[in-house]
Amino acid sequence: xxxxxxxxxxxxRIGELPEIPDRLVSLLNENGIELIExxxxxxxxxxxxxxxxxxxxxxxxxxxxxxxxxxIENLEDGKLDEESSEDEESSENEELSENDEGKSxxxxxxxxxxxxxxxxxxxTIEMSACPHCGVGLSFEIEEVxxxx
Length: 148
Known about the structure:
Low-confidence stretches: 1-7, 76-110
Distance between the termini: 38 Å
Oligomer: single chain
Number of strands: 5
Number of helices: 4
Mean pLDDT: 72
Strand order of the largest sheet: 3-4-5
Order of helices and strands: HHHHEEEEE
């Protein structure tokens, strides 16, 4: 058994990262940075410019991100999607289907395109977060057996 807990939920807030000191969470919040995605998008120079953050803090933050966050580049729009590496398999609480919350489903011959549960913009099953509103996504594919 691999020891990976597949029921862990995807984390999005900096305070949810393991091993991050409360002091750093508070300092980042004071600088308007609450989400992991926002933190990842900052350069080292931008981190240095934040109030109260030292070079040692920056190294610690980068090490925590390196060890706990999996960055997936979304080639369709050039944006980065981030996902906790401890959550290789996303929670199934936000599974998307045609019957779930009345979301519409638009089918394409090659790729299924469905509507985001939050903003109703088109998304695909390959996405882990909506590129429009940022809501985390997970999908459950149901296999349909054909009977003859």
